[in-house]
Design brief:
It is built from five helices and eleven strands. It is α/β, with parallel strands linked by helices. The protein starts with 7 loop residues before the first strand and ends with a helix. Bound molecules: S-adenosylmethionine (SAM).
Amino acid sequence: MLGGRTRDLLELGSGYGRDAVFFARHGFRVQGVELALETGQVGAPRSTGGEGSFALVPGDAQGFLERQPAHSADAVYSNLFYNMDFTAPEHRVLFRSVWRVLRPGGLHLYSVRSTRDPWFGRGRSKGKDRYEIEPGGITLHFFSRAYADWVGSARFSPVARAEAREGKSDFPVRLLYVVDRARGARASVRNRRARAL
Ligand SMILES: C[S@@+](CC[C@H](N)C(=O)[O-])C[C@H]1O[C@@H](n2cnc3c(N)ncnc32)[C@H](O)[C@@H]1O
């Protein structure tokens, strides 16, 4: 799915960069953003041999996306990032920014804990499909397929959805894997108009 001319990949919420390194080893030029990184941990792009390289940037994903030139990325990827405590309007803003940086036809690929995850419904409700798992602890936003379809619908066409159980037996998680393709600007406007009628 990522073959062909796909080269420039952005990752949101990279953590320690495990996936960024994986993609770089497979020839991608990866830039990842991670809120928990210290400024001193910023690295110049590092080569992994061949044509691949990766660089991790500390900071917030929204600001990172806004600093990228429009239509400069072939793919935007994230693993378990959109489950963080984002509201639906915040997701829509992020998705709009992802669409702006993607070349028309570029891919938005992400995995998220699904509404069939064992933790879904645990803790205190903070709004639709959002739960504060433990008092004062993290809030997670779980994704249904319908939500994934809706949140990308203004600017993306669905390519694939799949669900699977992952994790260890003492910490099972159920993930929804989503692949969307960025529509061109004209198609997005047409689609919005059609939905407004
Ligand atoms: C569940 S972890 C997943 C990390 C990594 N993708 C992985 O698969 O191991 C979510 C990551 O998103 C980061 N994060 C949360 N909010 C963020 C934001 N607004 N901008 C950038 N990173 C963020 C967190 O610091 C955390 O490292």
